[in-house]
Amino acid sequence: MTPGNTVVPPLPPGHTGLAEQASGPALAGAAGPTSPVQGGIPKMQAIASTSDAAPGSPRQAQAATQPNQSRSMPPLQLVNDPEIILEYEVQKVGPSGLKSVEVWLTRDGGASWQIFAEDDKAAEMTSGGKYVRTLRLPQDGVYGLSLVVKSKAGLGRPAPRAGELPEMLVEVDTVAPEGTLYSPTPDTSNRNTLILSWIAKDRNLGKTPITLEWAEQPSGAWQPIATNQPNSGSYAWKLPPALPSHVYLKMTMRDEAGNVGVAVTSQPQLVDLSEPEGHITRVTTTANKKQ
């Protein structure tokens, strides 16, 4: 969907690299329904850019209320690549065919709209056709998307008006989580246990984004301590037997968009909580020792 050369991301399960359709031709720039698409999924031609617009607030963009609003805001889909795969279908195409297929975009929950991309093969589409295209969004942020299809007679759904909710809501998040892993401290209430402490930050961390591991060397091999932990900021690690006296610690943070951040201690951390014991076994005299 974007101008210029772009890298097509891997296809999702079920896609073959062909422009999928039930009974009509493919989108702009695509080959026919049975011909391989050169370079992967074809792209829709971008005709406007929002790169200079202020990014929408990820969670706070709200649409202006409309008295005839018939649907609620769609669920937010998180992606970690600005080049998304857009799937759509067209119905009720008359004998005259289609004049245009446009993607309209909002960054403020529907308060304002602009045309963003257009399919230059709209005239080849037929009723019941299903199509797969790529569209490159400008940058990180939340985008609402709606499709506008027009016949050659100019009939069809009008362009979305101010306050109209989008069909799809997508957040592009390419930023990996950031975090700090602190030196462990003994758990004073539990024997042979260390408290691992950290700070992890990301706007889309999710409920269980933390994995903790240890290794004798900073390059691994990493052994699990705890996986899929909440971002609580601490974890009580019951030390396993035969653990070295010093180990490196690693925290992996994964957000809901699939971005991964990693923090590894720069120095091996002391994890030996052994408490030495000593006992007197005998008392004698120096005279006895000389005998």
Under the CATH scheme, which class of the largest domain?
A: Mainly Beta
- Largest sheet strand order: 1-5-4-7-8-2
Please give the number of β-strands.
17
Question: Low-confidence segments, ≥5 residues, pLDDT <50?
Answer: 1-39, 57-68
Annotation field: number of helices: 1
CATH architecture of the largest domain: Sandwich
Biggest sheet descriptor: 6 strands, mixed
Shape: rod-shaped
Radius of gyration: 30 Å
Average pLDDT reading: 79
> How would you classify the helix and strand content by structural class?
mainly beta
Order of helices and strands: EEEEEEEEEEEEEEEEEH
Helix content: under 10%
- Residue share in β-strands: 25-35%
In the CATH hierarchy, the third-tier topology of the largest domain is known as Immunoglobulin-like
Total domains: 2
Report, as a whole number of angstroms, the end-to-end distance. 99 Å
